[in-house]
Amino acid sequence: MEVWIYGVRPVEELLRRRPHQVAEVWLARQDEVQRRIRRQAEASGIRCRVCRPEEIAKRAQSSAHQSIAARAPLPEYLDWQGLLTKLRKAQAVSLLVLDCIQDPQNLGALLRVADGVGARAVVIPQDRAAGFSPAVLSASAGAGEWVPLVQVKNLRRALEELKQEGFWVVAADPGGERDFQEVDYPARTALVIGSEGEGIRPLVLRACDQRVRIPLRGKVMSLNAAVAAGVVLFEVVRQAQAREKGPDHRKGTKTPAP
Q1: pTM (global) more than 0.85
Q2: Does 177 score more than 50 pLDDT?
Q3: For residue 87, how far is the Cα from the chain centroid?
Q4: In angstroms, what CA-CA distances link 156 with 83, 115, 135, 205?
Q5: Rounded Cα distance, 257 and 80, in Å
């Protein structure tokens, strides 16, 4: 089913990733950015139409369209077994696992974080969770076109399968037993992030190998889910890069994961 994907970066990345699926592009400005996108679309044989902003708003059903929208299907989800097959071929890999993130803005921001750190995929439950939508793609600034999103029926079971594949499963949790900077993250790490309201569900939390906390210094003792994911995942990436450079580049005493 086709939808209207809106926003400058989402449309640009859509045209880069899967131009063959784009039916048309509507533009409401004639600045250099939109001229560049129009040239990109027309080079792929995609019909472009100049229109009024309110026409785009009506089709996108959003005022955050940035005067551009494209008609195309949503990205496809990656199959869980397909992901496991790909993971078996990689030695150093990180995953982001989301437990019941229902806000499209949060999911989009988390996809953007996952893309920024080079995570292999984002895993979400099929129920009680946001999935692909134009709003999610908009909030991801186009990252949703590149980061595989995987839906699973049972998140706890999926974590157990990841552990069988050699992953160390870490939960970012305010009640975590260790500071996230004190942990030595192995080459295959899956980070679990819960919703801002409820956190990680107890059954999912019990499936994790370790819980880590982010020490906060302010008065409000909580972080946005995407910020929390970014803080921990960039530490995972920093350690991976340090391992590649050798022991002289690793600072501090860590608690190794079994």
Answers
A1: yes
A2: yes
A3: 17
A4: 16, 24, 27, 8
A5: 25
